[in-house]
Task: structure prediction
Amino acid sequence: MNLYAIKAIYLFEMARTWRTLMQSIVSPVLSTSLYFVVFGAAIGSRIAEIDGVSYGAFIVPGLVMLSLLTQSIANASFGIYFPKFVGTIYELLSAPISPLEIVLGYVGAAATKSVILGLIILATAGLFVPLRIAHPFWMIAFLVLTATTFSLFGFIIGIWADGFEKLQVIPLLVITPLTFLGGSFYSVSMLPPFWQTVTMFNPVVYLMSGFRWSFYDIADVGVGVSLAMTLAFLASCLGIVWWIFRTGYRLKA
Amino acid sequence: MAVDKTRNTHGTNRSMAPVISVANLSKTYASGFQALKGINLEIQDSEIFALLGPNGAGKTTLIGIICGIVNPSEGAVSVAGHDIIASYRAARSMIGLVPQELATDAFETVWATASFSRGLFGKKANPAHIEKVLKELSLWDKKDSKIITLSGGMKRRVMIAKALSHEPQILFLDEPTAGVDVELRKDMWEVVRALRASGVTIILTTHYIEEAEQMADRIGVINHGELILVEDKDELMRKLGRKQLTLNLHNRLAAIPPGLEGRGLELSADGSELVYTYDTRAQRTGITTLLKDLSAAGITFRDLNTTQSSLEDIFVNLVRQSK
Result:
């Protein structure tokens, strides 16, 4: 195991985070705060409680999850896409490191950053609505698992992308809609029966449900199912990454 | 000729075990383009090997495969006995690569990027070594500058510093002096010579034949994915380094006068020039005799000039022949 290499990549990526503090931390926190002001305070007070939880509090896990997904993908995809774009990838490919070490460095840093961001957003939320976390261990577990999974997913997008447009297209056209329709702002039980069935095909529903359960003990699907789905998605991302390095897809000529 | 002296003393110390051994290496890209065709090559320890070839000949592909950036289609490469695929860690940790394209992390500082490279190659942080490398490359006073603020030549040095940060035993320099001014080029030659003196094996590709002529111990010429020649440079220059004397005649000749045939003389198509080819390294060039004999035969000339075939001519000829 080339620990020095993992550390070098990890610290390099984290340094990039601090260097771009405004766009990597400040802007997601600001946009989330705006959601709280609008949905939590302004509109939320006119919406009935959901399963005994005030609307403002209900959307907290959803908003954290929304940032977690988009930021994990954005960080990890940019982290690996940029060296490809400017050509510094040569060094990574010629270094005595295994794919696993590359992934640990890049995905580890992206996930770390997302978890930090998620906790900051959570703390920000605490300023607007009273927070209650029923299962802190599981809350952190879901936070870390989701951040890791979507950082891996972002890493795949970063390798697949051969232009800045492709880098944006999946988060914009797939992840954001799935998150909004995945129960970030409502309970699945509030949907008409037909759409309840349709929504079960949305993987984000399972992540959302498990995460919200760790806060308020309320869930759309069983927490075991949530965990299993998250792990399944993690496993498929790992599989794709393994295939990428085995074949050199979009990395080696 | 201080350079020649160091080369000679060095040559005697050189161990004959190849540090890189390339066997039957071929590469066909997905597009069907065959970049390398059955390359066999051995690089000796602590030599400077210059790889020459026109654009698209396969130089960068060959380097790419050895360094792990390009997957080979066929054949095997070993670095100090380590297969580049099966024992990639051992093989790659010995190699430093300076690619042709200027690719740097624009927002990093010189110091940070060199330290990063060292870590990437699995070496414990060693500020003293990084300091030494940066000083040797005259980058020390720029160590805290962001790379984006540096000139092109400085960026090139940064890339060399990155490659040297992990103390490689083998250094690949792909067109190291492309787009670099004369002054800086000379500096780099000094750095390369100093590295070789410290026991580093250097493989460089270049477009500047002058560079290969000045620097290399051995020269390989690659064209259309085939190694058409690998030769000791001095040997190559001696074998192929001919000089030509061209005489512009007062009166055109229809043929080479009797008695002067078979002495390496050639008559130009219009009969206005006589061209004499000779070896400058031979004991006697035969010029004096030739001129005497010409004068005896009543042939007078208006002007004369001599040209020496450089490595460039040799190279151009080889590449033309291999087409």
Notes: The interface with chain A takes residues 29-30, 61, 64, 67-71, 88-93, 95, 97, 99, 101, 103-108, 112, 115-125, 162 of chain B (CB under 8 Å). Confidence is low (pLDDT under 50) at residues 1-14 of chain B. Chain B has two domains: 2-238, 242-321. The radius of gyration of chain B is 24 Å.
